[in-house]
Task: structure prediction
Amino acid sequence: MTMLYFHGTTFDGDRGRIAARRKMMRNLLVALGLVPILYAADASQTLQKAIDLLESKGDVAGAITLFEEATRTNERPVAARALLYLGRAQERQGAERARATYERIARDFGDQREVVTEARRRLTVLNESSTIRSAGLTTRRIQVGGDIDDLGCLSTDGRFMAITHWATGDLGIRDMSSGQIRRLNLKTSWNDSDDFAQGPVFSPDQRQIAYAWYSDKDRFYQMHLISTETGGKPRILVSNPELEYFQPAGWSRDSKAILAGIWLKDRTSQVSWISVVDGSIKALKSMDWRQPRTIALSPDGRYIAYDVLQRQDRPEREIHILASNGTTQNPLVAGPVSNWAPTWSPDGSRIFFLSNQSGQSDLWSISVEDGRPVGRPQIAKADIGAVAPIGFNRAGTLFYVSNRTEQDVLAIEIDHTAGKLRGPARPLSQVFLGRNERPVWSPDNKWVAFHSLRGLSRYGPGAVSLVVRSLDTGEEKAFPAPFAVGQRPAWFHTGSALLEATRDAQGRAAFQKLDLTTGKFELLRPVDTVINSAVSLAADDNTVYATSCDSDVRNCAVTRFDLKSGQQANLYSPSGRSNVTGLTLSPDGKMLAIMLNTRVGEPRTQQLAVIGSDGTGFRILLQSEQQPLVPVVGLGWSPDNRWVYFVKIKEPESELWRVPVNGGVPENTGFTAVGLRHIDISSDGSHLAFTAGRRVNPELWAIDNLLSTARPAK
Amino acid sequence: MIFLCMLVSLAPATEAQFPEPPLGLDLFMAVPEVNLLTREKVAIGRRLFFNKQLSRDGSLACASCHDPARAYSDGRRVPRGVGGAEGTRNSPAIINRGYGASFFWDGRAATLEQQDLEPIVNPKELGLPNLKDLERRAGLPAQFVAAAIASYVRTIRTGASRFDRYVAGEANALSAIEKAGLALFRGKANCVACHVGPNFTDEDFHNTGVAWRDGSFSDEGRYAVTRRQHDRGAFKTPTLREISRTAPYMHDGSLATLGDVVEYYSSGGRRNPHLDAGLRPLDLTFAEKRAVVAFLGALSGVIMLLPRGGNKRRSCGQVRAIRRSAAPERPAIRNRRIANPASLCT
Result:
């Protein structure tokens, strides 16, 4: 043993000798047998208990005690995981201790790559603390949660930020010094309508705001103007069904035109000027389906920096500088990596942008002159995270929004006889914590598939990875989806492939098959409708059940698709006020549980119903009469086809319920979790998988002194 | 003479103020820095474009196969060159080509400057034996001829069609059947998969099966350029602007009418080993086919020939004056003589 141990080992003073002795002792114990294994098993159990306390009960203090206990094990994978969870629990009490824990992981557990990666990610999110000072920069966290809008706009003097007040859909103006928000009273609440304002930009004199207005009645966006004075009436500048979406980006210096990204009905986009006088549009540059995300007008109004996908089926972006009169265009930075979110410095001499060329999301800057880059880009702040820059104030402070996700996929034992859940919920993935959702069991229950938001953007190609994880070995395979996937996948019964309802950049819907062996997606069948629910795949691996809707998602039906023939048939199309919003096939394939909501604009009600998979025998199991409505989401079947499980969305924690299929009173299982949704019951009925946690928790940050640290171009 | 012409070709990169493009087109058009648009160069390019002395027997000009009256196409299945020689591919309508990313049906030219001399020396087209002969006939260096013709072609822009007016908010600019055709174009027929953007082309290459005849490709298409298998039988997506004026259709002119084209795509194209994955039978009804054809008719608009002033024929003295004004900044070109200066300033 000793010989084996010392072979090839070098020592570095006392620390090395002590470590060597410890390691030798451990190896000896391992060689002798049981003790360490038992100890590791204890630590794993302790860790599991702690996770349960944290995730299900919200007992942070109790969880921290147990996590700390679990970290003392000599089993490094368990210790590393315990530390990671310890950090997450500590985050709820403040960033400082969590930061130290993550730094310890990064320093001491280099052999635990996945955990270290996650720890570094958390460090990025925390940005070390709410205020840090390094390399002359000061980074401040201004606000967590609440009225933060990553499409907000800073006034030229930096005193105000125009935002969407997402609690109502109204426009608001935030006083940057006091944090107070003054609403412009376009609407009072979501009960008024599902209309909302988006992407406001101040006019140069700050007396007007241009913004996009989503008209739910029309199902497209309009361009509006409004005075920043209280009581101003909006003026519709453009309302054209051929132009579906506007992203205002700035005003011309003379206030006669508004720069905007416009999405046309064919989902192509263009950067355009919109006349403030008559709403006429001049297209500067069209961009097929490689949609721009950030469009930034230089302070002097002469140039426009924008980012655009390099390819419509890839997540990488590139930045160009376009003359605002359309005469020239130059690339800002070249390369196969992704560069995005350009932001002009207040004097227009530099462009700051995000880049992943180091493998993480860093803030860079480069000098520009006459619409061209000058010199080489230089890093301004490393590892800033996937943030959305808002802009600079005159003092040179850069404001940005960090959209943190806090959702994970978990599993818990379920007892269908008692209708209760047992034991702690345990996470189904150990990496990319806070980014995972929509779990679904494999047919043999040895794997779980889920979606993970691993891209640098929350939307577009590459934003979501399809992940499959072995429950036996913990092996995990991730497959970035080159298109949008918004619904839970279904397993083919061979267990070697997943069925996904997808939508590409052109807006074309399809069923795609992900071969888990090759990692390749195969187009199975284009779909002319919008798939608006999780897909259920029958045992023949050919018949698909899903909710399909018309293009504006006003009329949805329970639809059966035949993948081979391409035929589709609506099994149930609700008449009148109701619409189908969710669907799940029973284990025996004979019934569908469906969710019905009243259409937007009607008094809202909700029904949970079942229908035969041949479209016959529609029966309502549950009808919501409570007002305000308690929204119900997520459907799952017990393995004996006797119960339908569902989630009632409540604050602070949602509840898991079930209702008998043959009629009867719904039962509360007593299980609750924050943001509980996307439930799936394993085919043996032993476990429930689900998503829990908040999808987005935005934070507003600022970095001071960025400009003074940026070196002039040589 | 040639000296002065070279001076113009090396003119500083100053952008002339040209009128804005017609409705529906982008303000931004990528123009090579070495050949920025100037009114003078465009005017010279126009004259070259219509100059029959640039063909071997003096019978043809660029405009013979790119006739403005036919939206800069020729109405033939394949073009006729000098001596009645038949070409192999349909004359494309050279409208809005300033927005193009590559040129010829197989995309073998990366710029208009690379493209526009090739037909002049192609034995089946204008048939000049070589570029020296071109220079002799034009009285201009070949490089300048290429630059000038490319500049002229960049000014051939068409837009302001009824479709453009409809998209701009004029709801009645399209008839009911044309609107139905537009919905099909974007939806069931999925024409927009390739015919996208202001110019109705993705500037990419697709195998639609047209070249697949009797179990082999009658024309290798893009493959001849890239040597990639999946490019076999692939051709560049043409613009659909002015499409009702540019029959016959496809790279080989094999389909006589727009109805034939819609019928071809409705049936899913001709199956072959490299058929574009986006092609599948559309099963359009008779009424749907009619609607798509009707919509395509709404893509005809106004062809902007030249910016105002550029059409004016300048006297030879004026041209010389223009050139002289730029002379002091130019490097001298020596030891170049042309035996027979062309008729540029006749």
Summary: Chain A has a mean pLDDT of 85.
